[in-house]
């Protein structure tokens, strides 16, 4: 036995305790320790039953992801599982925290499982581009049936203990905080009652019942095609469940191994595993240590009850933090509050909230028409019109109203946070919090650090954003920060390509096929082409202006870059095609055929280059932070790892060569950043900077 496992006797029950912080992941020492401990417990004549328990915050949270891709070392997990399953004495897994992935697969090889009520179990491998590779895909369907197994395996969702109990994933719940006693008592009961050694692998009824019913799988694939689009792992998980239904256990295990290895060596899982760690890394700020004191935020103020202000408020209400929301006009305030209520009620209709939850959340909201009502807030977030003068005016007013020691945040998406802060006498308390629309849904929060923003303010907002379910990324002051600054590159090229020869739907198709939820033109139609456009000032100088002049305003009036039917289905518009051809002619542009490859490279490579520039200027801390922004804020497909990771997959040298080629043909929009040149020359990786 090594120092991560401990074996003690509690009367006639052997208790194996695993202690490998932070999450008891199945690293080589853990597998070795478990193997030795189970061997000793099985061979100890004084032990009549064996309990596996974990110290610390959780039961085993899975394989050690950081080991993946490295050479084999230590005992195979399967050896530990074989010892457990074939033990002549009952083995009980005692679960608290989260039993996930390989951890839950270990529990599934125990003869019985007990858990505390707060525990969760699950097989989240699909989120890492994988499938459970230690028998999970074969055992789960035997316990819960293939239909439910398909849901769990392809969503990776965690399962609460009450649901786990009902579906037989867990055999008994024991009192919170008394797991050890409860598990030992349960084990003793098994021995006293002579209960059989239940092996999940031997259960047949649920898989047999599904045999000869291929429609179970066909229907599931069809119903989820959209959700699984582009991803390899869901299909591999489905194939494993098919194997569980159609093949004997041992054969199913072989199929699981074969498919697991295929995923493990592919680029999708590499990208998704990278993102798992990148997201956690983004929370770490080199000069703001982990133990920086955080300020209590018990009450939040939001200025502006529009789409953004309302969405921002909902994040806090959902986390149980009271919000005072301020608008200038009563009508706008009432409308904003009504929309928030409606959003919650829609969620309740889908069964994801109770009406009591809706009332509780709305009960935490105080609508107001008076900025003075924000005086006692611990944090105030301004979400008014994106205009520097207006923002400065609001901040100057806030400075005179809000108590000292409160955080003043701006939800600006482009503007200079230092200049906004300069309108107050307390710039160290000012920070940018750039939410993404819809703000109650989108995970990303760009946190903008001003020159004077205090470290405890940064630490507080980083921690708070986690509390409200966001993925925070700290960025520096620059126009558009990380996300919008890179987006501008893509948008510029998309617009140019349309004039040079591509159609909006060609560009949208290429980016959709790349994995984005929609392309830039479909996106513009959704947002409205007339945002920021006014008839009086329109001068037909851009394609967008011409479209607005022709009353093509986007989805909202059924006509934008596309034509829309009453169900908002888009079709390419012949009228738009003609407008584009005329416009290009007027500009003296000779159109040419543009390949899909060029569309992709022209749209994506300048973004990678801009990402490198952002890093060069120190506006993002690391390359992986840039990727986290794009995955969580702009629908970049997670299986492609973000623009920096993707750039490395292509090769920084190849991206650089293309940028130079484009620079020759199309000018300095493609001027390579010094950092891209350096990375390419030194053979480094952008995502590891
Ligand atoms: N392997 C290695 N490190 C892990 C890990 C894992 N499986 N799970 C978590 N960690 C690390 C994190 O990187 C983090 O490290 P850091 O402090 O240095 O940043 C630390 O543990 C704490 O993690 P979180 O910050 O995520 O802590 P939370 O309390 O918020 O969440 C958790 C805990 C729910 C367990 C979450 O970490 C999680 O979801 N982990 C991944 C679970 C998972 O995907 N398991 C399946 C792995 S694949 C597998 O098992 C294959 C098998 O089928 C063969």
From TrEMBL:
Pfam families: 3HCDH, 3HCDH_N, ECH_1. Transmembrane segments: none annotated. Residues 299-476 form the 3-hydroxyacyl-CoA dehydrogenase NAD binding domain. Residues 480-564, 599-684 form the 3-hydroxyacyl-CoA dehydrogenase C-terminal domain. Belongs to the enoyl-CoA hydratase/isomerase family. Monomer. This is 3-hydroxyacyl-CoA dehydrogenase NAD-binding domain-containing protein. It comes from Camelimonas fluminis.
